[in-house]
Amino acid sequence: MVVGVLTIELFIGEAHSLKEKRRVLKSVIDRIKTRFNVSIAEIGEMDTWQRSTLGLSIISNEQAYVHKVFAAIVSFIEVQGTLTVIDYQIQLL
């Protein structure tokens, strides 16, 4: 069994307040949950209105599957246009 943890640092260019940031993140988080069936939450930069850190996790039998899903999630976020991926890290437990 492989547990994958993805940490993504984001820049939210269109957010000009915490309320706008929450709106943008809620939309993206809901779409990621629905599309990729992963656990996801905001884990950092909660009081900063143009930055955020998201934590995601997935459990699988294969490392390759975990990497494939996380790569697809990073690509999905990048093509949204409202968010910029600053950095991301993948850990396998």
Automatic annotation (TrEMBL):
<dbReference type="InterPro" id="IPR036746">
    <property type="entry name" value="TT1725-like_sf"/>
</dbReference>
<dbReference type="InterPro" id="IPR007546">
    <property type="entry name" value="DUF503"/>
</dbReference>
<protein>
    <submittedName>
        <fullName>DUF503 domain-containing protein</fullName>
    </submittedName>
</protein>
<dbReference type="Pfam" id="PF04456">
    <property type="entry name" value="DUF503"/>
</dbReference>
